[in-house]
Amino acid sequence: MDSSSEVPDQLFSLSSIEIITNTPEPNPIPESTSVPSLTSNPNPNPAQFFPFIVPKKPRRSRPQRGSARTSFHILPPHYLTFDTTTITAASTSNNNFAPPPSSSLLNPNSSVPDFSDEIIVINKDSTGEALIALSAGFPADSLTDEEIEAGVVSVVGGIEQVNYTIIRNHIIAKWRENISSWVSKEMFINSIPKHCTSLLNSAYNYLVSHGYINFGVAPAIKEKIPAEPSKPSIVIIGAGLSGLAAARQLMRLGFKVTVLEGRKRAGGRVYTKRMEGGGGNKVSAAADLGGSVLTGTLGNPLGILARQLGHSLHKVRDKCPLYQMDGKPVDLDMDRKVEIAFNRLLDKASRLRQLMGEVSVDVSLGAALETFRQVYGDAVNTEDMNLFNWHCANLEYANAGLMSKLSLAFWDQDDPYDMGGDHCFLPGGNGRLVQALAENVPILYEKTVHTIRYGSDGVQVIAGNQVFEGDMALCTIPLGVLKSGSVKFIPELPQRKLDGMKRLGYGLLNKVAMLFPYVFWETDLDTFGHLTDDASTRGEFFLFYSYSPVAGGPLVIALVAGEAAHKFESMPPTDALTKVLQILKGIYEPRGINVPEPIQTVCTRWGSDPFCLGSYSNVAVGSSGDDYDIMAENVGDGRLFFAGEATNRRYPATMHGAFLSGLREAANMARYARTRTMRMKVNRNPSKNAHSCASLLADLFREPDLEFGSFSVIFGHKNLDPKSTAILRVTFNEPRKKNLEGSKPNQQHSNKVLFQQLQSHFNQQQQLHVYTLLSKQQALELREVRGGDEMRLNYLCENLGVKLVGRKGLGPTADSLIASIRAERGRRKPASTSMALKSGASKLKTGNLKQKLVRRAKVVSNTNKLVPPPSSNMIIGNALAVEPNLNIVNSNKIVAPLNSEIVNGIASEEIRTTNQAPQGISGSGIYATFPFTSVSLVFFIFLDV
Fold this sequence. Notes:
- The strands form ten sheets. The chain has a seven-stranded mixed beta sheet, with helices on both faces. A five-stranded parallel beta sheet has the order 13-6-5-17-26, covered by helices on one side.
- By secondary structure, the protein is α/β, with parallel strands linked by helices.
- Among the domains are: 126-214, Arc Repressor Mutant, subunit A; 241-321 and 414-674, FAD/NAD(P)-binding domain; 686-733 and 768-821, no CATH class.
- The protein has 26 helices and 36 strands.
């Protein structure tokens, strides 16, 4: 017997694919085909999209019975109303036009007024296309946050959005008809009216760049990867599903990609091991030791990969008998009774968290369930406790976390996004997908990354004594490794990201894979379970997978979840095998079935694996879905990006979630690269209207939308998205008395001299303005920071990780925003000016945003600690920043180490002025250190800002 240790990702995924079944199954497409009306709200909550009947995410990993279905909430009344600019209906009399993609669009029998000049028709089966788009993660008749951010339409809401969604849904459906082909834009020219050509371009470009169509490993798609890259270099850290997905997409977009992988293989927590033995009667099987189950096959991108490779999927059959400690089967009536009671307690816990409100954030799911179990003692009596504990172990398996540590408020926050369809195994193992994705991708194995440097000029990834440089980097390091701190980031990641990383949970699942000489168990089932009489060991070998139908040999895998999974890490493999065989013999030997010794056994130790330190993420007490979004945020002004299952709010802890996050970040990296290229072109050819644009900006800031201390903000009121871009201005006035308290006797005089010199270079102005771009939400968070301008500056630099620049440093993105704000203000009535906001009150009235801001404001108030220099130092002007290692970095290259004069200037808080730039910085300007009470700032102000 060969006993070894290897190592998981998690077990869920999506797509419409061929599935092998031994019994006929009903069509998994939802029975109801009604779709909600187009709403004036551009982005309603995904849980409210449709009244479809859709398969519910199993609260247990055991296959669901046919009746285990639920429906999404119907849209509330305020989502079903239209504003005066939104057309509510249309006529179908013209072949080129159709009803809106609302209930009218999807129900051809509905009575609608004539509006045939506005809404197009492409395909009579609009309902089917809307459902296919839904399976791909899109609301059928509205936009996602990402689409709004990408500006796919000029106006959110209204007929343009309706037509865009019709075109978008049609393109997705067309590709799904043949996912092995490359869908070109030209294929739609004749079917889409000419006046919608711009919408066709917008929809097609968005879908291709974001990996919603034309992705995968089909020959027609692989042919689109250019022979020679034409775009900047990118370093990807990790060759798991997210890293491989991003690498292939970026290569197709023309980027030069290098993937660094610490292991000797690709796949990360998805690992298929070939097990074999038996001497003369040799047997072999493929064992998935990591991520194994594809959950939800409607639209699953991994299912699409399987189809492209010509692989069928095996549906995990519903039959799952449970056995007691003595090996006797559990009575079916008792099984149903306890399962119903368990789900009722979960429902009661769900209602409890609604009543508790924000307080539920600090309560665990386990505590709530145990309380209800004791209160409703008749629901689960002592006799049923072993069976009840089995269901608890199954839930802990699905979440890779102890119920005592799962958040009552948000443990199931991803439920609204679940993809429908069956749970499936891939015959031959998921390693077949990994192998296809890794083909022709430049992967360097056994490169353990320990340091990542990032700055405005690019990135350096250090593995051992090798340094890999790139324009950008994608970090797919598992959450467990990030939590351990074994990888150093220079500069340190923003506190916001570190806090989110700390709050999220990261759990453990282990397996024992056993290859037997022959199949001795039932062939009509894929799973069976075993009960224990000890709650602390309820997850120990609680579920068995029969892999013989898909592994190519007589293979059984036993799962270890919950608290038992952690104890298993230190259990000798021989002891583990002894326990498993004892369970199997207790079940089968009373029936006269001999249980042979396994030929080969493998025990996983994912918690001890240095490249993952666990299995997959969960929402722990104190955390929420917001933390997944925080984990996904890039840092370093679009230089360092993050992907992986722990960055995917909709599909965390899943294989498809990891894959989709890689496609998402590939699109984000391409967008940032494109923006930088445009900015470089603008810098080479400065606009002749630069002076007028600067004047326009100054005019807009006369009436800022937010104003607090020396900070003021302008943003567009038309776009209510909290992630929309705003412009922040920081004003450095002539030193005020309160800023000079406790300073040196000559400091006031030095400040006067400094500002007198500055005035001569800035048209005798009394103020110096510097700017940055940030989101509305970040601006509101900044406003809530207490402690004055010093604390706000510290928060801006340390927590938000932004840099202050001169007017020209804002680039073309700001120019476009300035123009749109100016145009919008020109259309406002005088009574609706932003003067009312100068007290700090925002006009944003989005309820969910307000709640989030209140919660985050509390966090800020508890973490607003000054960071002593030099880490809090920054250089303002032309995107310069001082790193803790005392290198001056600009947007193009490292120009010089910080000289001793600068260091001394910071340390002594002296004000120094000169007409000569520091060594290594070209151009004339004024250099000075400017001390606040506790935060020293370093300025190099270029004269052309």
